[in-house]
Amino acid sequence: MAYALPNNSDHFSLLKFKEAISTDPFGILLSWNTSIHFCQWYGITCNSKLQRVTELNLEGHQLKGFLSPHIGNLSYMTNFSIMNNNFYGEIPQEVGRLSRLQKLYLGNNSFVGEIPTNLTGCAHLTILYLFGNNLIGKIPIQIGSLQKLQSLNVGKNRLTGGISPFIGNVSSLIYLSVIINNLEGDIPLQICSLKSLAFVYVSLNNLAGPFPYCFYNMSCLTEIDASINQFNGSLPPSMFHTLPNLRTFTIGGNEVSGPIPVSITNASMLSRLQISRNYFTGQVPSLGKLQYLSFLSLEKNNLGNNSINDLEFLKSLTNCSKLQILGLSANNFGGHLPNSMGNLSTQLTQLYLGGNRISGEIPASLGNLIGLNLLMIEQNSISGIIPTTFGKFQKMQKLSLGSNYLSGQIGAFIGNLSQLFFLGLEQNMLQGNIPPNIGNCQKLQELDLYQNNLTGTIPIEIFNLSSLTNFLDLTENSEW
């Protein structure tokens, strides 16, 4: 027997919504029939007194279809989520009729066309999530009238134009993401009037110009990701004095120049600093006060001046007990690796030092970093032997020491590195035999010993490494 339905337009609108869906692989809409009240249908929440739909949540069920314009008749709806599905077509203008709507999640679908300009009708909107579609056009300036909007995410679309000054009118904004679009121009100064703004993600666009100077007076800022754009200019020396809550600062892949501000030490909450692939110069300041620092990437800049003091800052990093990834490769660092490197965090998993002008010997204390699974020191002027303490690297997967001046033998310690899949020792002055216990490295896929002074018989154990299929180069040695 069919359930007696009240005279409510919500029922009709929901059925029209269902009609527009062509694929329902999990059968979640089977309950959408007249045998039960629509307030009991899957994904529906109603106001208990008025029996009107307040929430429609069908996210993550691989539904395929278009979004019916009848959605605009669910006038009591406050939360609408169909993210992580396969909806296509344009976002109907009728969404703008949902005057009570507070949260709109349409992300990770295949919507096309432009963002509806009449979203201004959703005056109570606090979250607008359109990430991961194929939307085109500009970000509507009308969004500036949404005074209650706290989170705006239009990332990973095909939007063009720039970030309009309207953004300064969204006075409640806390979270802004426009990543992975085709946006151009600079960041408007009006953004700095947003006193609650904490999260700014603008990476992978074509934005240019310097960062707005007023950015550095926004004490609520917690995360800034502006990587892979065309930002230029330099960072003000006092920049980090007024960013006490900053946890993430990533501007890699831009055209920023000048020194790293010494004030960086004041951003005591910083956990992620990524400024690689820019034009930074000068010495790296002391970073020892950044006790939460876990990720530091300074790669591919012009830091250092090939002097003995270039790596002094490494001593300060011994205070950063949470450090996991340290990237310093492809700079102009000279001098020796300090013994204090052995006091870096035991949580350190990746250490990149290649492509610099580092000389001297590898400190034996480096073997204390037993958490390392990747160590890159290639293309420097390192001399001396490979420390036997490297045998402590039980987790090491990739070890690259090529293009240096290393001498002595490949120690038997190499057999301890049972997790190793890449070993690069090419273009050095290594001598003697290859230790047979290299056969213990059963996961080894690439072995490069090209151009050394190795002698003796190639151990049969190498040819028994079944995983060694990607690369093997033993050429240009003394007697092979």
Summary tags:
elongated; 480 residues; disordered N terminus; 4-stranded mixed sheet; mainly beta; 3 helices; 19-stranded mixed sheet
Quick summary:
The protein has helices at residues 9-19, 313-316, 460-463; strands at residues 21-23, 44-46, 53-57, 64-66, 79-81, 86-90, 103-105, 110-112, 127-129, 151-153, 175-177, 184-185, 199-201, 206-209, 223-225, 230-231, 248-250, 257-258, 272-274, 279-282, 295-297, 302-303, 325-327, 350-352, 359-361, 374-376, 381-384, 398-400, 405-406, 422-424, 431-432, 446-448, 453-454, 471-473.
List segments where confidence is low: pLDDT < 50 over at least 5 consecutive residues. Answer: 1-7
Q: What portion of residues belong to β-strands? A: 15-25%
Rg calc: 29 Å
Q: Please count the beta strands (DSSP E, at least 2 residues each).
A: 34
The residue-averaged pLDDT reads 94
Structural class: mainly beta
